[in-house]
Write a structure and sequence with these properties.
The complex is a heterodimer of chains A (about 240) and B (about 260).
Chain A (H helix, E strand, L loop, with lengths): L1 H16 L6 H16 L3 H22 L9 H40 L2 H7 L4 H12 L3 H22 L5 H9 L4 H27 L5 H30 L2
Chain B lengths: L1 E10 L2 E11 L4 E5 L6 H9 L6 E6 L2 E2 L5 H9 L1 E4 L11 H12 L4 H14 L15 H13 L5 E5 L7 H18 L2 E5 L3 H7 L2 E6 L2 E6 L10 H7 L3 H16 L1
Parallel strand pairs in B: 3-8, 3-9, 6-7, 7-8
Antiparallel strand pairs in B: 1-2, 1-4, 4-5, 9-10
Classes of the chains: A mainly alpha (about 240), B alpha/beta (about 260).
């Protein structure tokens, strides 16, 4: 029963997020602050992970191609497909569920514990709009993060391929450019927008409706990470089936 | 003035407020006291509009809260100031930004007008030099004063304080009590204080409402509480030897006069 209750409360929270908006002059600052915290603040870790995972994908692909009949440029092709279709949108989103999601849950949860949310409500402010809406808008820039992840993943793969001696630079670039289907980019970015929505709202939900003290803030962060990841994986499957199958 | 008429509030099968009726007058410090679990916090949250009573009405200067539209409720809430037990300051903002927050949200004042008002209010609570500090850099007493400054910056009609003295040393607690009383009289606002602090009861209790098991057990003032023969009140207020002696001294002085 509690799952059904939570699903209902989650959708009511989303409805409330768009109601009775906070003054634009205040909201503007909140949005910029959240862009800094959630987007700019994530670029470092996303760049680091993307570069090295791109390299690992390349090495593993190259090591598994033993047959001399398979052309070397296939390494670049496989890296591009893996990075663009799955690694950047999905894998990075799972990492962001840990980084950004736990930040959102713990910051909103701490506000709940220290009565800051009550203070907003007493003043007649729509606390859900004030707290969640700027995060939702900030995460609409999430595809920008994923674009960087795609680029660095492919660059990382190129570095590993060339400096590891698995194929030449020309072969890798040929592979990366080979049979490029523009819709794959659209598919990746549709997924990214959906995941951005989940990343903004599920952790906010667990932070906003948490009860208890400091210990519960930690528990809420963990629960929010689990459910955000579950929903990302589930919707990844559904969207792939709908868009690519 | 706030008029409360037969307010009932339950959570599940537990009836917390069992029909409270009272009036809180303008320009007076109204104290709500009672043992833990007596329903004080729930009653205060009903007065704040955070909890909706199942039965009964609460009227703010004649406006019955349950009859108001959503916009009217928001407007009314903007005229309320609240001092939370833990101060509830926004930790990401400086003290001055915390105080400025209600002005940014609810007024169309220019930046300089807001700055002037913030400086005026911070001066009123003796924190003129602390504006640039973060709440985490301020002591508990300072945080309480910032919370009071934030509550009064937008010139509220109603001020609610939930245990404003909890966790403070006696001297700071007296400063906070006096500040609340001065502000109440100076700005002619209706102030409700939820407290366990018997010093506050004696010092600033112009009206005292004693709750027991969700019901109004007694009401009076810091003058009449010395003479009450209500057993529940005397057992609660004069539970310590010190306050028993204070009561005895007061009654002896009263007889002499």
């Amino acid at each position: 029963m509690s799952y059904i209750h939570n699903i209902g409360a989650y959708f009511l929270m989303i409805k409330e997020m768009f109601r009775k908006r906070t003054k634009w002059s205040v909201m503007r600052h909140l949005i910029f602050k959240d862009i800094d915290d959630l987007i700019i603040g994530s670029l470092g870790i996303v760049a680091f992970i993307s570069f090295f995972v791109g390299g690992v994908v390349t090495i593993q692909t190259a090591l598994n191609i033993n047959s001399p009949l398979i052309p070397k440029y296939l390494v670049g092709f496989a890296t591009r497909q893996s990075v663009v279709l799955e690694f950047a949108p999905t894998f990075i989103s799972i990492i962001m569920a840990g980084k950004v999601g736990s930040f959102i849950t713990s910051s909103i949860g701490t506000m709940r514990v220290t009565e800051q949310i009550d203070a907003l409500e007493v003043m007649g402010i729509n606390a859900i709009n004030y707290l969640v809406f700027p995060k939702f808008i900030a995460l609409m820039l999430y595809p920008f993060v994923i674009s960087i992840s795609m680029f660095l993943g492919i660059i990382g793969g190129m570095a590993a391929c060339v400096y590891g001696g698995f194929s030449s630079l020309e072969d890798y670039i040929t592979g990366v450019q080979m049979e490029f289907i523009p819709f794959h980019m659209a598919y990746a970015f549709i997924k990214t927008f959906v995941f951005a929505f989940l990343l903004a709202t599920i952790p906010s939900f667990y932070g906003y409706y948490m009860k208890g003290g400091a210990l519960e803030v930690g528990k809420a962060s963990t629960t929010s990470f689990v459910w955000t990841s579950v929903m990302i994986i589930l919707l990844n499957y559904i969207l792939t089936q709908l868009l690519l199958a | 003035m706030i008029e409360v008429n037969d307010v009932h509030k339950s959570f599940g099968d537990t009836e917390v407020l069992k029909g409270i009726s009272t009036t809180f007058e303008k320009g007076k410090t109204n104290l709500i006291i009672g043992q833990s679990g007596s329903g004080k916090t729930v009653f205060l949250k009903c007065l704040l509009g955070l909890f909706v009573p199942e039965k009964g009405t609460i009227a703010y200067d004649g406006q019955v809260y349950s009859d108001l539209s959503a916009d009217e409720k928001s407007e009314l809430r903007a005229s309320m100031g609240m001092v939370f037990q833990g101060s509830a300051l926004f930790d990401s903002m400086t003290i001055a930004e915390n105080v400025k927050f209600p002005l940014r949200m609810f007024t169309k004042q220019s930046k300089s007008e807001m700055e002037d008002r913030v400086q005026f209010v911070l001066k009123r609570v003796n924190l003129s030099d602390a504006g640039n500090k973060l709440p985490s850099e301020a002591s508990d007493g300072m945080q309480k004063r910032v919370a009071i400054a934030r509550a009064i910056v937008n010139q509220p009609k109603y001020l609610f304080c939930d245990e404003p003295n909890s966790g403070l040393d006696p001297k700071t607690a007296t400063v906070i009590d006096n500040l609340i009383q001065e502000i109440t009289e100076e700005y002619d606002i209706t102030t409700m204080i939820n407290t366990h602090d018997m010093n506050s009861v004696m010092e600033i209790g112009q009206k005292i409402l004693f709750l027991k098991n969700g019901l109004k057990e007694w009401e009076g003032s810091n003058k009449t509480i010395f003479k009450t023969d209500n057993e529940a009140v005397t057992n609660f207020v004069y539970s310590s030897d010190l306050f028993k002696r204070v009561q005895k001294m007061y009654l002896e002085e009263d007889e002499d006069q």
